[in-house]
What does this fold into?
Amino acid sequence: MSLGHAVRRAVQINRHGAALRLEGGDVSWGQFEERVARLAGAMQGLGIRAGDRVAILALNSHRYLEFFFGAAWLGAVFVPINIRLADEEIEHWLGDSGSSLLFVDAAFADRIPPLRPRLPALAHIVYLDDGAVPHGFTAYEPWLAAASGTADVGRTGDDLAALFYTGGTTGRSKGVMLTQRNLAANAYNVIPELGFDRATHWLHAGPMFHIADGVATFAITMVGGTHSFVPRFDPVAVMKAVQEQGVTHTLMVPTMINLLVNHPDLGSYRLGGLRSVLYGASPMPAAVITKALELLPACRFTQAYGQTEASPVLTLLHHEDHQVAGPLAHRLAAAGQSVLGVEIAILDPEDQPVALGEVGEICARGENVMPGYWNQPEQTAAALRSGWLHTGDGGRMDADGYVYVVDRVKDMIVTGGENVYSAEVENALYRHPAVAECAVVGIPHDTWGEAVHAIVRLKPGQRASSEDLLAHCKPLLANFKQPRSIDLREDPLPVSGAGKILKTELRKPFWAGRSRAVN
Amino acid sequence: MSLGHAVRRAVQINRHGAALRLEGGDVSWGQFEERVARLAGAMQGLGIRAGDRVAILALNSHRYLEFFFGAAWLGAVFVPINIRLADEEIEHWLGDSGSSLLFVDAAFADRIPPLRPRLPALAHIVYLDDGAVPHGFTAYEPWLAAASGTADVGRTGDDLAALFYTGGTTGRSKGVMLTQRNLAANAYNVIPELGFDRATHWLHAGPMFHIADGVATFAITMVGGTHSFVPRFDPVAVMKAVQEQGVTHTLMVPTMINLLVNHPDLGSYRLGGLRSVLYGASPMPAAVITKALELLPACRFTQAYGQTEASPVLTLLHHEDHQVAGPLAHRLAAAGQSVLGVEIAILDPEDQPVALGEVGEICARGENVMPGYWNQPEQTAAALRSGWLHTGDGGRMDADGYVYVVDRVKDMIVTGGENVYSAEVENALYRHPAVAECAVVGIPHDTWGEAVHAIVRLKPGQRASSEDLLAHCKPLLANFKQPRSIDLREDPLPVSGAGKILKTELRKPFWAGRSRAVN
It folds into this structure.
């Protein structure tokens, strides 16, 4: 199974059907294969060989799609670069991967020349856009037109296909190695569950550098469906694409869905053709899904949970489980059930399964799991110990196989040999009517290693003492999970750009001069 | 990806749902896993270890399903035996595979004792049925009840899972080695195309020893659907299962469908729940499909083409392509398009692709293709040469990727360096109104190697000379494909038990004392 195979099968079953729907007209699967083979030939002409790394830094476009399949056709390893990076991070990704060829578009072209002196391996830069070409760059279309197509070199199975770097809020980002089989396995896993077939028309609305959109890059190709593109997310562009291009499926994060369903012009577009929205990255707020279900009644919403190391999908929460009321409404807080081909286990720190319903680390097995991190044997061994991918997320599974993500493992507190998931304690505190926001962290303790400590801000005008809150928690939590100390604050807790409470910051003053196992 | 994983995922997503619907009630996926683990433990208690071969000779039942998954759980290699074999063939399959354990039911129990003296490896026989147990056999249920469950040994990927022996009308049958990944890949390939999900309720109506029914054995388990069983095909049992048990999907060969749709009691059963019938082995006669579509309007018919060596599906002809009239009616003669995950190529004798629409050998690649034949390195190398599975079937592919099977390669005639597919010549002859039946074979020729020779029987009361028939073929066939001689007979041509004309017999007198490359 290989990405080259995916293209060839799309051609076999849908040669004259639309691979790409562009402003200028459709590109058939037969034509797409020709361009992919030509792109592989053009790269070969620059001296690129199987196993070489080739990177891309660009907004969404059909050329981005060609890049993925052209690189795979030649057996080169593709490295999609996050468009939100600082210069230093771009340099790290290009340097760490040893990329010798970079594709860049007009939006990012001026970022590269200052970095080049420190990137000796980077021999060639191809400019993806039409129009004036920056000095020293090769113009994409003429270069492609001058090349001859090559045959697929036939990389397959465990051959390395891609390096997808993880964001990495702590430490430097690592290159996740994904094989041909990993990417194909993820596609196989989602195709039946998302109902992809040759009538599926996918809009690349989320960024194509991200493996979340990669779900469609490979799966939609494998079934011979159609791809459309918007350069970057914009609610109007999405609505136009649905109305005018016939888009049926797309992926958005809840924030994007929120922007879409609250857009003032929503009512003036015909959006009945949109049959499915996949979303991920965070659970769906009830208010957003309620509005979305009301405004887009023909559309199915599916939540995906996963991570780059799993190519990326681990679980799916299907449309039927998006119930805002009734006995199954709690499932809206779940990440769903294991996708076809993935086995989930909730493991304790010794990698033994916890009892059903107990909290542990969410771990996974399947052919979609990476072989490791690029040039990081220790981190690879840690992530894949005992034959399971360790997600770093704490969670539990109910008797029906629904997975609930409760916490990051690094926010877990180890006190007197017991594990306490901070989210569990926070949930107990949030049930007190006076609590506006709270965070629970582990602080050093001479006897227990760590002690459970809570930082709480009360709602304006509400009153509650630390003792009141401790008494409130008493019947809700096992003894070892009880907060040992509570710090009442008036200022809002520090948050990240994405709005998440920064526990690292909250822990810092307690750990000055000491070291915590994970931070 | 492994068969053990398939069971565990079914449990994760559908623990309390019905794995098996039996006369005595449902068995849940949670209970099924327990029985599978116990069966593995019971086999382990007999000394069976990973890699050992364990065979089964039985009619369909839920215990047959347990056998597959129990063996896989222990890492043993399962060997399902054709229930239509002669004693000598049973002995060959058991002996060649070196099976040390055999499961047998009441229908076949008396076949085994006479063979045992010549099967030194066969140490244990388990009797699947309830009631009196033949001497020297172990009773299944008490043996299972006394055992403890074991953990899945974790065989996966390229580990050998099964030996499925091919029928082999010429020569001795060979054991097709299928790995865990092969069986999983086939399941992955068909799940989206056949729409299998946890609501799918499969009736094992065709024989479970055959890999055709194996499609459902593994795929239905992977999606957490439900299995039902009839001991052997019977139209009334099938209609009852649909009406009373809620069966939604099944597999039948065209002959079975014909029996079903022509059954006098068809009208007295409620069959509206039957949503999908998969069929294979031979194309669907237009008269049968017309009647089936009329009598079962809610049911989708899908043709599968493949072979054991491909675990087994290569192409599917979907319901929409079953048109008995109109411009696409010719597709009813096709075997369909390559299934997800399979690449088809039509290759010439040098393993080069022929031009689109030309006839060559149907070849395939994909993770469903066997690693080889058990202890047959030469036959393995021949079947898998150039990295393609050679099906032995001649065929062509049209521009839309539809594959048409035209001939067995061994019936291909090589004359003056040109390949002539006998079916093409036969089709031309059949267009003459006087021809009742015909067969075209290669006969020895000193200059050309082989010459095209036709054997023809005319319809009663019709007249046509050899010269008439040659003149008829002239405008229909390229010169090198024209018959060089025609033999008019009055007797019907010799046929096999399955009704196929025996070309081997027809060729024999011409080749006495000479050798043909394939026969």
